[in-house]
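Assemble and predict.
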Amino acid sequence: MSRSAHPAGPRHADVLPEGHYSAPPADLNTLDPKVWAQTVARDADGVVTVGGIDVKTLAEQHGTPSYILDEADFRARARAWRGAFGADADVFYAGKAFLSRAVVRWLHEEGLNLDVCSGGELATALSAGMPADRIAFHGNNKSVEEIRRAIEAGVGRIVLDSFQEIVRVAHIAQELGKRQRVQIRITVGVEAHTHEFIATAHEDQKFGIPLAGGQAAEAVRRALRLDGLELIGIHSHIGSQIFDMSGFEVAAHRVVGLLKDIRDEHGVELPEIDLGGGLGIAYTSDDDPREPHEIAKALTEIVTRECEAARLRTPRISVEPGRAIVGPTAFTLYEVGTIKPLDGLRTYVSVDGGMSDNIRTALYDAEYSVALVSRTSDAEPMLARVVGKHCESGDIVVKDAFLPADLAPGDLIAVPATGAYCRSMASNYNHVLRPPVVAVNDGEARVIVRRETEEDLLRLDVG
Ligand code: LLP
């Protein structure tokens, strides 16, 4: 395939249409370490490598699209979180971001605990040998069967999410002759988004029991009365992709306020507090996430200060980062197909995946970046929209990004920071097959979740 520049398509900043982009970067070949996994680099030929393997080899051996996950980076981030919080706190990786048996083993080895939110995630965790007492079980509508399995397995905690569930879990635990360690998830009236939080708005949602109107206090009253439950703490999760710590500050203040009320009413000091996950990562160069040690310091200081003011013993803190651990460790490798320059607008670059492997752009208007990874290019920047192969015009992977104007079918491009909520939210829309997850480390590539096949699809379709 010849690499001729495309005849049309906007190139220069003064003719660009409106969109979510700033000026083209000075050099399209540079890979911003903020958004790419730690071991990503370009080799002498300009081909991107990760874990010591170049993307052309990965594409040849594993096909495209593929999620390519940097194991060393995953382990380093897990270790950084663990180290930042230290022995007096617990880090529960939120499996919903991405879970596989290899990931469970890495977490186990690195000393992290695991948050699961379904029977499927629980089964994955247990089958890979995560000790049950290091598992927290979440969910706003756990089934009786799921609760039974979790209690039988001996999970370290079940996070209670409603008044009905308090009774249900207590009842099942008693039936099984057990006393289940539980936390109560409360909503503290804080909605946190990237750079802001809107107080009080967030009680209007399906998760947790509102602190407002004394509902959380009533939930505690009921839980303390039931023999099947050992209430170990209060849980709060305020949102996702958060950069601003002030939402956590308000949440910690309100959770500690409840702990104080519990002490005053029941003479009990609950030993644990979980502040959930939600810490943001860089999807584009405009994002500036905090380091785990900064987050640990900020959260520990907030809780300690609030507890001192309330004359409470500082409880053991736990957190549940998902995205912040796995998000930056993977990129999606695509092959470029059809290229369609639309005069005066932008150039549509189609890839061999799309909304079935990354629904986040369509669902949340999420922003991503993209780079040509199978070679470098000195061509001018071209305003591009990376789209998938699905029968839907909202099938967009990267809304606005600059790619070199000599981009051609057969080139490999990659979208970084797709480790979280991409494979785990992947679908079979249009019967497109879900891509594999290939873990690379020290010059070796290993498939940890294999590519779906047409046989897989047909096996479920029983005719
Ligand atoms: N803990 C609880 C109780 C949660 O509900 C969540 C996420 C987490 C921890 C982990 O949050 P993280 O650190 O990964 O932000 N699909 C959306 C994100 C949904 C998050 C749901 N709960 C996305 O793609 O942005």
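Residues 94, 96-97, 115, 138, 237, 240-241, 276-279, 320-324, 360, 364, 420-421 surround LLP (CB under 6 Å).
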